[in-house]
Amino acid sequence: MLVLLLLHLAAALAAPLLVRRWGPRACYPLALAPAAAFGWALTRTPTVRDGGAVVETYRWIDQLDIDVALRLTALSWLMTLLVSGVGALVLVYCGRYFAPDSAGLVRFVAVLVAFAGAMLGLVLADDLLLLYVFWELTTVFSYLLIGHSTERRASRWAAAQALTVTTLGGLAMLVGFLILGEHAGSYRWSEIAGAPLPGGAGLVVAVLLILTGALAKSAIVPFNAWLPVAMAAPTPVSAYLHAAAMVKAGIYLIGMLAPVLADVGPWRPVVLTLGLVTMIAGGWAALRQCDLKLLLAYGTVSQLGLLAVVLGAGSPDAALAGVVMLLAHALFKAALFLVVGIIDHEVGTRDLRELSGLGRRAPVLAVVAALAAASMAGVPPLLGFVGKEAVFAALAERPVVLAGLAVGTILTVAYSIRFLWGAFATRPDVELTEPDPVPVPMLLPPALLAVGGLVAGPAVAGLEGPLRPYAELFGAPHEHLALWHGLTPALGLSAVALAGGYLLHAVRGPLAPALVRLRSPVGGNQGYEWIIHRFDRFAIEVTGATQRGSLPQYLGAVLLALVLVPGATLLSARPWRERIALWDSPLQLVVTLVVAVAALLAVRARRRLTAMLLVGVTGYGTAMLFVLYGAPDLALTQFLVETATIAVFVLVLRRLPERFSARPLRRSRWARRLVGVGVGVVLAGLALVAAGSRTAAPISLAFPDLAVAEGYGRNVVNVTLVDIRAWDTMGELAVLVVAATGVASLIFERSRTGPRPRRGEPSRAPRRDTGPVWLSGGPTLQERRRSIVFEVVTRLIFHTMVLFSLFLLFSGHNAPGGGFAGGLVASLALTLRYLAGGRYELAEGAPVGAGTVLGAGLAISVGGGVVSLLTTGDVLESAKVNLPLPWLGEPYLVTSLFFDVGVYLVVVGLVLDILRSLGAEVDRHIEAAGRSERGLVVEREGESG
C-alpha cells in the first residue's frame, strides 16, 4: 500500500515534465498509477471476502508514537476501487478533454494525480491522525483543482468557499479525533474498534465534532452550499471529486465509524435528520436548475444525504444497502458528469433550454446517459435499482425515515428524467443542436461506468461476498443482495417512486411557480456570504479598536500582561528560594552596575545615536558577564552580535531624525518607565524561580562527554549547535533566511541575485583624481563622508579579518569559534569595507548576490545532514573521517564541519543582504533625492534669472 502511495507521488512529480513534453496525452501514462491501485485492490478480493484485512505499518514519528498504519478492509476495499478506478478513467478522459494549449494544464494534471494519491491514503489509513493528514491534503488539492481557472472570479470564490468550509470542518474533526484517541488510549482505529469505549460527555463531544467534519466534507446540510458553487471547476474535477471521491470522504468516515459510534447518543438523530433534509432539499433544488451541471450537483447533494442516512443508520441491512448505493452512485454520477463535459465540449453549452435533438445526432452518447440516469432513478435491472430497493427494505422498521426516503427518491426520479429530457429531447421551439463527433477516449470512460452499473445489477449477488463482511460488523444481515426478491413492499415503493417522479416531470409546467416559491428564504450560498461578511466586519471593528498603529501601545499591552499575570502569580505563590547569592566575584557587581547605568541613561537619552551606543554598552556588559562566568564562546558571539547590531543601527539612523520626538509627555514617560521596571523585576523573578525549580538533573551535564564521544570535538557549545541540537540550528538558519528575505522585500523591491547597477549607473566605481586611493570606492563618496585614515585601516585589516573568520570557522569544533562567530567576523569585515568605501566598494568586495550566498549556505547545511544520513544512518549526526596524512599526526575530519560552513554562509548572506538593503539602496535613495533637490534649485534659479 505504501508503494502505491509513493507511485502516485512519483507520478505527480513527473506529471509536469510529461505534460510539457506530450501535452494532454501525458494523462494516458499517468493513469497507470491509479490503475495499478485498482488492479492491486482486485487481487485482494479473496482476503476481503473472507473477512480478513491487509495491514502495513511503518514507523513515522517516534516522539509522538505515530505510525504510517495502513489497513484494507471491506469498506476501504470498495473505496479504493472507486477512487482508483474512476481516477484512471477521468485521467483518460482528460487526455482529449483539454486542448494542448490549455492554460494551467501542467499544474492541473499534477494536482489531479496528487489528489488521487491523497484520497487513496485517506481510505487506507488506520491511524486517525494519519487519516487527518490525508484528509487535509485532499482539501488543499481540491482547492487548487476547483480554482483551476484563476482568471475567473467565480472559480477563485468557489475554491475559497470549499476550502473554508471543509477546512473548518476538518479542524473540528481533528479535535474530535484527539478527544476520542485520548479516551480510547490509542489513535489506531482497528484498536479503538476492538475495545470497549469509555462513555461520558467527552465521547459525545468527540462524536459531534467528528460528525461536523464528515458532514462538511460531504456537503450535508447546513454545509451543502459549497458543492454547487464548486461546479465552477472543470468537468473532470466534478466527475472525480464531487461524484466519486472527495465528497465520499465524509460518507466513508461515517461508514467507518458507525459500527462503533452509531449507538452513541447524538449519532443517529444528527445523521438521520440532516441526511433526510439534505436529500429532499437537494432533490427539490435540482428540479429548478437549467444548467445540466448544476442539476447534477444538486442531485449529488441529495444522493449524499441518502448515503449518510443509510450508512449512518447503524444496522447490518442498512450497511449492506449503503455500500451498494455507494458503488452505484459513483458509477452513475461520474458517468453523468462526464457526459455533461462531452456536451459542453462538443456543443459549447450546458443550458438545457438551448439544447434540442442531441439524442438523434449523438445516439451512443444518449444511450450512455440513459443507462446512467436510469440507474440514478432506480430503474431495473440496473445497480441503482438494487441499491434503492435494499435501502427501502433495510429501513422498513423506521416509518418516518422511510417516508422521507420515498419523497427524496421521487424527486430523484423527477430530476433524472429532467436531465435526459433537457439534454437529449427534441423541442420544436429550439434550434436543433449540431454536435461535433465525440472522440472515443472521451466517450469510453462514461460508457464503461454506465455499462458497469448495467452489468452489476444482475450480477449483484457476486458483489455480496466482499461487501458482506462490512455489514457483519453491525451484526448478521437478514437480507441478501439480489435483483428480484419477489413482490415486496420495497418493490412497491420503488414502483411508486418511479411513477411519482414521472408525474412530477409531466406536470413540470404547472409546477414551475411552486418550484420558484417553495425554496428557502435564505439560500445556503447567501448564508455563507452573510457569515463571511459578518466575520470580515467583526475583524475590521476589532482591528480598528485594537490596532491603532502605535508600536509603544502594542508593546506596552504585551508587557503589561506579562507584569500582571506572571507577576501576580509570583507575588501570591512566592516560590523563590530564601537565600540567593547575588554575585560570585566583585567584578560581576561592577559590570552589572555599568549595564544598569547604561540602561538608565539610554532611557533618558534624547539623541538616537546616544541611545543606541548606550544600549550597545549593555550588550558588551552582558558579554563581559559571560567572560566572568567562564563562557568564552558565548562572550565572543555576544561581542560580535552587538558590534554587527550597532553597525545596522547606524545604517538605519541615517534616515531618521537626529533627536527623539518631544513626545511622550512627562506623565506618559513615567508610566512607561514603571512598566519597564515591572517587567525587569518579573523577568528576574521568573529567572530565579526557573533556576531553582529544577528537580531532575539537566541533560546538559552529559553534553561534555557527548561532545567528545559523539561529536568528536572539545568545544561543547559548537558541538551542541552542529550535532547535539543541530535540528534547532537548522530551524534558526531557516529563520535567518526568512529574515533576510523580509528585510530585502520590505525595504525595496529589487533583485537579490547580485549587485546589478541600475540603468544609467556605471558598473564599477567611477575614478576621480581626488588624492590617494586606498579603496576603489572611496573617491565616489562625498568629501565630508570620506576618511583616508578609515580607508587605510580598512585596507590593512580587511583580509586579516576574513582570514580570522575562516580560522574561527575551522577551529571552532575544538576551540572558541564556529560558523556563527566566523560568519559574524566576515560580515563585520564587509560592513567595515562598506562604511569606508560606500556601495561601490561593497559591490567589489562581495561580487555575489546575497540570495546566492544564503541559498548556498542553507543547501550546504541540508547537504551536511544528508551526508550524515549516508555515513551514520541518522540525519545531522557527526561522523569522523580519518585523513591519510601521517606526517601531520592523526588528522581527521568531522562531517559537521559542512553544516558549520553552511551556518557561516547564511550569516554572511544575511548581513550582506542587510548592507545592500539598508546601506546601498538607501545610498541610492539619498543620491537620487540630492539630485532632485539640486535640479529643483537650478530650475528655480533659471526662472528667477
UniProtKB/TrEMBL annotation:
Keywords: Antiport, Cell membrane, Ion transport, Membrane, Transmembrane, Transmembrane helix, Transport. It is a multi-pass membrane protein. GO terms for molecular function: antiporter activity. The keyword ATP-binding does not apply. It comes from the Bacteria. Pfam families: MbhD, MbhE, MnhB, Proton_antipo_M, Proton_antipo_N. Residues 125-409 form the NADH:quinone oxidoreductase/Mrp antiporter transmembrane domain. Residues 62-108 form the NADH-Ubiquinone oxidoreductase (complex I) chain 5 N-terminal domain. The keyword Ribonucleoprotein does not apply. The chain crosses the membrane at residues 74-93, 105-123, 129-146, 158-180, 200-227, 267-287, 294-313, 319-343, 364-387, 399-421, 442-461, 481-504, 554-573, 585-603, 610-629, 635-653, 674-693, 730-748, 792-811, 817-836, 848-872, 892-915. Residues 594-658 form the MrpA C-terminal/MbhD domain. It is found in: Cell membrane; Membrane. One of its GO terms (biological process) is monoatomic ion transport. GO terms for cellular component: plasma membrane. InterPro entries: CPA3_Na-H_Antiporter_A (IPR050616), MnhB (IPR007182), MrpA_C/MbhD (IPR025383), MrpA_C/MbhE (IPR046806), ND/Mrp_TM (IPR001750), Nuo/plastoQ_OxRdtase_6_NuoJ (IPR042106), Proton_antipo_N (IPR001516). Residues 752-778 are annotated as: Disordered. Residues 789-912 form the Na+/H+ antiporter MnhB subunit-related protein domain. Residues 672-747 form the MrpA C-terminal/MbhE domain. Residues 758-770 have a biased composition (Basic and acidic residues). This is Multisubunit sodium/proton antiporter, MrpA subunit /multisubunit sodium/proton antiporter, MrpB subunit.
